[in-house]
Amino acid sequence: MxxxxxxxxxxxxxxxxxxxxxxxxxxxxxxxxxxxxxVSSYLENEAIGFESNHLFINVCVLIKTSIPPFDLLTLLKxxxxxxxxxxxxxxxxxxxxxxxxxxxxxxxxSTDTLTIPHRKFRERDFVIFPxxxxxxxxxxxxxNYIKQNLG
Length: 151
Prior knowledge:
Elements: E1 4-12, H1 17-30, E2 34-39, E3 43-45, E4 56-65, H2 69-83, E5 98-104, E6 109-110, E7 115-116, H3 125-137, H4 143-150
Antiparallel strand pairs: 1-4, 1-5, 2-4, 3-4, 6-7
């Protein structure tokens, strides 16, 4: 069973934002197929792509997993639902939790349901800053691939 390194972005702008993020990371840690390697510092930022009176808290997370990309996406969506996320409209909106796969090793995937690397990560400081923090503090197999994609 092959193990892959994965960068996730996790954010929340409703309820106890820190608790929501910590809870999602805790659920990931309980899965025997996932090894939590590092969690970045919290970053507070305004909503991007929609108007909101609620600031977001975001982190990036480095994990190791044997879970294939599409199965991992399904797992992340189930964690979002477990924490209480609802999907009420199309587009961006306030949310209790949002979990995205930014990188899955050096995989490149482009489908209607999953794009890796995440198609908008370069435009989002709330991904770039925490991602750079992880890149500076941890060595992992595809860090050079990420650095090339940041350019």
